[in-house]
Structures are given as structure tokens and as C-alpha cells.
Write a structure and sequence with these properties.
Structural class: alpha/beta
Helix content: 10-25%
Strand order of the largest sheet: 1-14-13-12-15-10-11
Number of strands: 20
Largest sheet: 7 strands, mixed
Number of domains: 2
Radius of gyration: 22 Å
Oligomer: single chain
Distance between the termini: 39 Å
């Protein structure tokens, strides 16, 4: 087992970390497949409003690769298909019925799996709706089934304390996880399993399979970060990666022949009594996860991570890849002479505030504490970047349309962690600039191809 120490990053000091306590939250009248959050997918609808569907029925495919299917997270009736600007499909809403019938697929035994060809296994995962769970670097797109990665990276645990604990979702699922790893090993000669920190008691089965032990601050466990610090050849830039919970889903789908919709998410509303792990289902409405809690209009929902996630509304749905939900306060009124205050309770990485020298966990809100200002070349963003790019110079190159220069600075190595935007004293959205540039570059590459 190799130990990879990531020196750059930031250790969260945010209050309301989810405990390892679990609570079941499954009650919901509707679920939805969120389409607009799927990277680089052009949906081709296979259903229309009013159609009856089962759990595991095909809802749409990708126009660029029609073999990749996206399946229904619930059984019932397609009650609505919501469109955004330019008729972009945002979500497909399903009103659940009591029976919730399930589609069934051929189940695999270990012997059958070992004798299945790589192409047949990939085709089976695409038909079963599990292929979108596998992503490909450097653009974090859905993996190209025609490519051959030098390795597949499996992430167990996260340096983000607001993501699910691996020991929570692995408990009782060891058989399916092992089967999922076995399936992935049919698609690549090298499987790298990364664990954050030390393996706790009760998970001895991982001692021989874990290949990398990760230490460091957020986002140390990101597959792109680990790859950056371990790669030896350019071919590794195209490696695939997958979350440990999704490996369980693949193993469960192949072994049982049923499309899995169960999900463990980390939920936090900033209070220790309500912050915990929730056992729920894919596509559930967010407000159903907070049933029984008093969530006022002065709250902001964030899915996907405090620094890398998206702001959303309570009537939206949990998408296919999200496992973190946070509720934070909306910005209060601006403080009079806030720049003169010592900042004892203000979250910051800057040493100009007293809170930097305290280990106390602090509450957060959406206040930026200032407006956007010109870049002062302070170097804060570069000091926390875990992949050693220079975000300020990369963004300046992009603003000047110098794409080649931005690539030379390491644009494709960016892991979209959001740290550069957080520490920037000028409040510049560096992370958004880098993310948008990567999307445009991916689009140009595909147009050329």
C-alpha cells in the first residue's frame, strides 16, 4: 500500500459536520432523473408525459452514444418533463405508485462474470444504466466505452467532512463492493483503490485490496489530485474513476439483476442534532429529506459539496451523482465597518482574521464579505491549489483568449475543487472561470473529432 501525502489544500473548520448516525428517509410522492447535471450528455427521450415506467425502465439515451441508457429511479407515471432555456431538458419527474414494479436483468455469478468478455460486460453496464457512474479524466465526462484506460481509480472516503463516510455506506455491503471491483477489473488491468486516512477496525477485507492511502487536506482524495501526484506516463491522463458507493451499486446490479436506487447521503443544516447520514433513494425531492425540520426561506440549499457544489431550491431533486446536501444561512445584512472587525467568528484562511488561529468550528453563510475587485496577484489561490497550477495566471490567459498558454499553466489538471475562489481576497470566481473553460475546450475537441 502506497501512502500519498497531499501538502496543499485546506482543512474545513465548518460547523455542522454529519455524524455517522443513520436515518431512513424514503417517503416521497415523486422522484426525478435530473438531466441537466449530467456532463456532456445530449439526451434523446424514450418516454413522454403520461407513460408508465418501472424502476429500471429506460427514460432517455445519449445522442452521441445511444447504447448508454439512463434509467428510471422510480416506478409509476411520467408526470412532467421540465425544460430550461433553449428547450434543454432539466429533469424527468415520476409520480410514484404503491407497487413500484421493477425491471429485471440477467444476474451474474462470479463464474459467469469471469467468463464474460470486456465488451459484453460494458454493453451490459450500459443497458443496466450503470455506465454513467464511471467517469473519465481529465474532463470528468462519462467514460468512453471504446477507450482503454491504463487504470480505474476507486475513491473510498473523502477529505470533505460533508461527504458520506465510507465506513457508513460500506457496512453490510462488502459482498457487493467486492463484486463491483471484480467487474471493474475486467475493464482494466490496474484497479487503484484509495482510502482516506487509516482503515478502521471491521474492514479488514480492504487491507489487501487498498492500493493507496491518502493523507492531507481537502481535496486530497479527489481522483484527479491523486493521479497528478502519482502518474508516470501521459496515457494516465485518460484514466477512469468511480466513487466507492457507486462500485457497490454496480456490484448489486450485476449480482441481483435489479437496478439499485438506494443511496447514502450526508445531510447538514449546520446544527449537530440534525446533521447525519440519510439512507434514501436516488432522485428524491430535497425537501422530503428535511421532513420534520423547520427550514425557513432564509436558507440556501447546496448539493454536491460546500465549495464545489451547486446552489439549488428545496423543490429540486437529488441527481445521480450527488451525495452531499447542506443548508446554510442566506447572507445577512452587510456589517457596518466590517473590515475593522477582528473576525473571531468569520470563516477565512487569511491570517488577517483572528478565526484563523482558532480550532473552533464556525458557521457559514452565503455572504461574500465584499464585492469583486481586480486581482492583486497575492498568490493565495496558488498556495492552496493541490495540482500546482497558477489559477490567477490561467484565468488571465483565458480572459485574453490565450488557450495554449492556459493549457501550459495546467488547465486540464484542474480538479474543480473551488478552493481558489474561496481564498481569493478579490472575490474573483476563478473556479467558475476554469470550469467553463474546460467545458468549452472539451466541446471544441469533440467538434474537431
Amino acid at each position: 500500500m502506497k501512502t500519498v501525502r497531499i501538502k496543499k489544500g485546506w482543512r474545513f473548520k465548518i460547523a455542522g459536520r454529519p455524524t455517522d448516525q443513520q436515518e431512513i428517509r424514503l417517503a416521497s410522492q415523486t422522484v426525478a432523473l435530473v438531466v441537466d447535471k449530467l456532463p456532456f450528455v445530449k439526451p434523446l427521450l424514450l418516454v413522454k408525459e403520461g407513460d408508465s415506467v418501472n424502476i429500471g425502465s429506460s427514460l432517455f439515451s445519449d445522442k452521441k452514444n445511444p447504447d448508454i441508457k439512463f434509467l428510471s429511479p422510480g416506478g409509476g407515471r411520467v408526470s412532467a418533463i421540465h425544460y430550461g432555456p433553449r428547450r434543454v431538458i432539466e429533469e424527468i419527474v415520476i409520480s410514484l405508485d404503491k407497487s413500484e414494479n421493477q425491471e429485471t436483468f440477467d444476474a451474474f455469478t462470479e463464474k459467469a462474470l469471469d467468463h464474460t468478455s470486456r465488451d459484453s460486460l460494458i454493453a451490459g453496464l450500459m443497458t443496466r444504466g450503470m455506465w454513467p457512474l464511471i467517469r473519465q479524466l481529465p474532463f470528468r465526462s462519462i467514460a468512453d466505452p471504446k477507450s482503454q484506460p491504463s487504470a480505474i481509480w476507486i475513491s473510498l472516503g473523502s477529505a470533505d467532512p460533508f461527504q458520506p463516510l465510507s465506513q457508513v455506506y460500506l457496512k453490510g455491503q462488502e459482498e457487493f463492493f467486492t463484486f463491483g471491483v471484480r467487474a471493474l477489473s475486467r475493464m482494466s488491468d490496474r484497479i487503484n483503490i484509495c482510502w482516506y486516512g487509516d482503515i478502521p477496525p471491521g474492514f479488514d477485507f480492504l487491507n489487501e485490496s487498498v492500493t493507496h492511502r491518502i493523507t492531507g487536506e481537502y481535496p486530497a482524495t479527489d481522483p484527479g489530485v491523486v493521479l497528478y501526484h502519482t502518474k508516470t506516463t501521459p496515457a494516465e491522463n485518460q484514466d477512469w474513476y468511480i466513487n466507492g458507493q457507486d462500485v457497490i451499486g454496480i456490484g448489486k446490479c450485476l449480482k441481483t439483476g435489479v437496478y439499485p436506487v438506494d443511496r447514502i447521503v450526508a445531510f447538514s443544516d449546520g446544527t449537530p442534532e440534525n446533521s447525519r447520514h440519510l439512507k434514501t433513494r436516488t432522485g428524491i425531492r430535497l425537501q422530503d429529506l428535511a421532513a420534520g425540520l423547520s427550514i425557513g426561506p432564509d436558507k440556501q440549499w447546496i448539493v454536491g459539496g460546500i465549495l464545489s457544489g451547486d446552489a439549488t431550491a428545496s423543490d429540486k431533486y437529488l441527481d445521480l451523482n450527488q451525495t452531499s446536501i447542506m443548508i446554510v444561512d442566506v447572507s445577512p445584512q452587510s456589517e457596518m465597518f466590517g473590515f475593522l472587525r477582528p473576525g473571531l467568528h468569520r470563516l477565512s484562511r487569511s491570517r488577517t482574521l483572528i478565526s484563523t488561529f482558532s480550532s473552533a468550528l464556525l458557521p457559514v453563510n452565503t455572504d461574500m464579505h465584499g464585492e469583486i475587485r481586480p486581482c492583486i496577484n497575492c498568490g493565495y489561490c496558488a498556495s492552496v491549489c493541490p495540482v500546482d497550477i497558477l489559477p490567477q495566471f490561467t484565468c488571465k490567459s483565458l480572459w485574453a483568449d490565450e488557450i495554449e498558454e492556459a493549457l501550459a499553466y495546467g488547465l486540464l489538471d484542474c480538479v474543480e475543487c473551488g478552493l481558489c475562489s474561496f481564498v481569493c481576497p478579490s472575490k474573483i470566481e476563478l473556479a467558475e472561470c476554469l470550469k467553463d473553460a474546460r467545458k468549452h475546450y472539451h466541446k471544441e475537441l469533440n467538434q474537431v473529432a
